[in-house]
């Protein structure tokens, strides 16, 4: 049987506010256990939540970023369940009336096409703390530093049909929220956590199959793998005439399998009801307008502009835009050098390769945009051949000065003077009579290959500085003259 | 004036005595501490006494008075209900769960009254987590009514009410979720005020039902309640539901002219269900107000009979969540040697909470459960709005509403304890006021067979002034509020 996979994603996005959503505690990652938990975070008797308005603004920014309807009167609710790292015995969330309502997110795929994903809703809530099992023997510790960290839970419709689409969505989401400055999107630190709802159905069917939910997958790569192995698992059951159990599963990266969570942990009746300690969030048009004015250029607009303004391909634009810092870097190089195509090629080619090799990022890139644009200007004006340019790039990487300085110091200027080139050609022909004879005896097809020998000799003699195009023309002409 | 005589003196008079130095705060504090020591064994109204701290505060108050720095409560001794968190002082909420809980913070009300110069003598006994109308649910034992030691003082602020009635303090705080200030005030012969929801910050008050809880003062006179209300009130950035409305000088603004004041009498409160003796006292009291120029108008609150059912869905539902934090993990009671997490939860909560608290947690959990939410909680929310609209419509015709504060006088211990519904009926005249978020006051309306009974005055939102004025006029014209229990009953 041929199965189609149907998926919806829920992403818990940690908002990058300075303080928690309902208390004044700091949200900085990595403090000693419980150092960033005050009486509110600990759920001490008599303590009350006070809403952090910055979290509201971030949520509205997100809503506008995906063109969603903003809930003009959203309400917090209590989600009731017992767990040691949930201090109050309930989580303050939004169930009945979320702050971000339905929207549409155009996700760029690798092939340059856009895949429209419907956003069901996004709501504000507080994070729980965490249980620590590895500090005390036979006892579990509770760290409430994370308790009360603001989260935006972003829920999609079941619009995904492949792991590639799901990963593309997460990457685009990561890009959007970092552009908006509302989250660092750091999956490894838990700033972006993903739950995947997966079901299979016969190809061509309109019905949805029974789904499972894979909780808390924390990297793009694991998302892809988790989907593949859950697909295999479900397909295997269905192929053998079995039925899928609706349940929550965990992805085990080490075993590369998904396994069922104990049903006790999931069989919860959360008994949502409106949180009486907080007022509804009322948002009017002028507030929305003010937030809209504050939005930066977003990835979709930037992609379109890079194509229109710099003549980039969709493919290159898709690669340059997701990371804001890369896009800015490109734009500086493109503008200063006046050669956007070359700029894109170098950034996506040699520069990214070098960064990857050294495990550096655009932020720790040793070559400033100004220096790279100096190199690209010299390529663009013909001073450097691509071969010489690679040498200059190496020198830039090693911080040996700017491109012009390196060219001067190493004498790397490309030789484009026809007199000098003619002399070189003359020498190589005079010194290699056998090869010349061989060349002349060969037919048209083989001659091209044989000419390479002469080019190589001249490049060697000129330390690679001969302008290859001019050299070729001159050489062929001179060889013809020998016959 | 002899020492024991100022134990029955209102705050307004003590204020004057402190100002003209006819008594010092230390003298007052010592006298009230002595009265607590002498009578608490019989009454069990106070669970924690802060003798040293109180005397220290009194010395500071006397120094301030010496400097001519008098604030509204400077040097006045008082007690807090044990539901208000007090920094460094055990706060039990009447529960085994918090038997040893010492908060690291003061409730905003405590902070404000401290800032106004009040002396905290200690903390008052109460029904466990404020759930009860008789003070019989307290883990720390029942409180006796100073008027008759065989009877309950009312609840949940029963310790607070008994303390004032017995002269242990001239002023106490209480909280009122469904009548917990007004009903014990009625049963102990005091004036007690539940302010408009949002008037007083809830920060640092241990939550029972967040959308209904409101703190207020209990004292001998409306005048004293006015003084204390100004001290307690005001928007608090730490309580999002506290209201951004100006706080008047309720005491300075007291006005005894009630000429033409329209007092609404809900037919539903004065129907055949009303005890005839209570009716007689309430009507006699209303006649006094009529004499003073008030106009009595019959009104309708057509959905009153839904108030108890509505309240007993919403309050337990909110309580079921508010009390979830008492899980034995971070603070409070933890069972011995838990076997696993579920055992920790089950036994800590079963052993730490009393029967009534467990009953309400179960009721509330049920009302919020999948499949029942619409039929119970959601329906109750809708009815709550209808009940509120009843009041708003009535207030188009009248300035205040009057009725009984409680269905009868104090009843003997055990009389209603086995019948939760009979106990819930104690708040039949007060619950709706909480559902509608309105201010309500109970003032003494005389005695029935030697036991006090109160009249309830209900005001428009944030118009505590008018009900205080009315009660003040009543206390200017009558001496209902001056009746005292026989001290021989509780003095050792």
As a whole number of angstroms, the C-alpha radius of gyration of chain A is 30 Å
- For this structure, what is the CATH homologous superfamily of the domain at 4-260 and 441-454 and 478-489 in chain B? Amidase signature (AS) domain
Overall domain count of chain A = 3
The low-confidence parts of chain B are: none
Please report the number of helical segments of chain B. 15
Oligomeric grouping of the chains: heterodimer
Strand content of chain A: 15-25%
What integer is the average pLDDT of chain A? 92
Morphology call of chain B = globular
Order of helices and strands of chain B: HHEHEHEHEHEEHEHEHHHHEHHEEH
Helix run count of chain A: 16
Explain briefly what this protein structure is.
Chain A has 483 residues and is of the alpha+beta class. Chain A has helices at 53-65, 163-180, 220-239, 263-266, 285-294, 299-310, 314-320, 324-337, 340-357, 369-380, 386-397, 403-410, 418-431, 433-441, 444-461, 468-482, and strands at residues 3-14, 73-74, 77-80, 90-93, 103-108, 114-126, 130-132, 141-143, 150-156, 192-202, 212-217, 248-252, 257-260, 273-274, 281-282. Chain B has 492 residues and is of the alpha/beta class.
Topology diagram in text:
The complex is a heterodimer of chains A (483) and B (492).
Chain A: E1 3-14, H1 53-65, E2 73-74, E3 77-80, E4 90-93, E5 103-108, E6 114-126, E7 130-132, E8 141-143, E9 150-156, H2 163-180, E10 192-202, E11 212-217, H3 220-239, E12 248-252, E13 257-260, H4 263-266, E14 273-274, E15 281-282, H5 285-294, H6 299-310, H7 314-320, H8 324-337, H9 340-357, H10 369-380, H11 386-397, H12 403-410, H13 418-431, H14 433-441, H15 444-461, H16 468-482
Parallel strand pairs in A: 11-12
Antiparallel strand pairs in A: 1-9, 1-10, 2-15, 3-4, 3-14, 5-6, 6-9, 7-8, 10-11, 12-13
Chain B: H1 11-19, H2 25-43, E1 46-49, H3 51-66, E2 77-81, H4 108-115, E3 119-124, H5 158-165, E4 171-175, H6 182-188, E5 191-194, E6 215-219, H7 222-232, E7 262-266, H8 276-291, E8 295-299, H9 307-322, H10 341-352, H11 355-368, H12 374-394, E9 400-404, H13 420-424, H14 431-436, E10 440-448, E11 451-458, H15 464-477
Parallel strand pairs in B: 2-3, 7-8, 7-9
Antiparallel strand pairs in B: 1-3, 4-6, 5-6, 5-10, 9-11, 10-11
Helix pairs in contact in B: 2-3, 5-6, 7-15, 9-11, 9-12
